[in-house]
From TrEMBL:
It comes from Marinicella litoralis. One of its GO terms (biological process) is DNA-templated transcription. This is DNA-binding protein HU-beta. Keywords: DNA condensation, DNA-binding. SMART domains: BHL (SM00411). Belongs to the bacterial histone-like protein family. The keyword DNA-binding applies. The keyword Transmembrane helix does not apply. Pfam families: Bac_DNA_binding. Histone-like DNA-binding protein which is capable of wrapping DNA to stabilize it, and thus to prevent its denaturation under extreme environmental conditions. One of its GO terms (cellular component) is cytosol. PANTHER family: DNA-BINDING PROTEIN HU (PTHR33175), DNA-BINDING PROTEIN HU-BETA (PTHR33175:SF3). It comes from the Bacteria. InterPro entries: Hist_DNA-bd, Histone-like_DNA-bd_CS, IHF-like_DNA-bd_dom_sf.
Amino acid sequence: MKKQDFIKAVADSANVSQSTASDCFDAVVGTITDSLKSGEKLTFVGFGTFAVKERAARQGRNPRTGETIEIKAAKIPSFKAGKALKDAVN
C-alpha cells in the first residue's frame, strides 16, 4: 500500500476528506519524527513502540575492493510491534 492509498483508506474510514486525512497523517509522522529526534520513546499500547537505538562504530569491508573501512556510530529509529498487532497479523 502506498501513502496515497493509505490516506484514502483513512479518509474513508474516518469519514473525512482526503486533504484532512493527509494533514493528519503528516502531523502524526512529524510528531513521531520530532519525538525520536529529541530522544523520546513513543509507546502506543497494543500497536507498538518507536524508539531510537545506538549503533556502535565498527569496521566493515568494501565488497568491491576488500578494503577495510570504518563505519561511524549512528542513531537508528526502531519499531517493536505490540502484542495486539502481532496477534492481528498472525
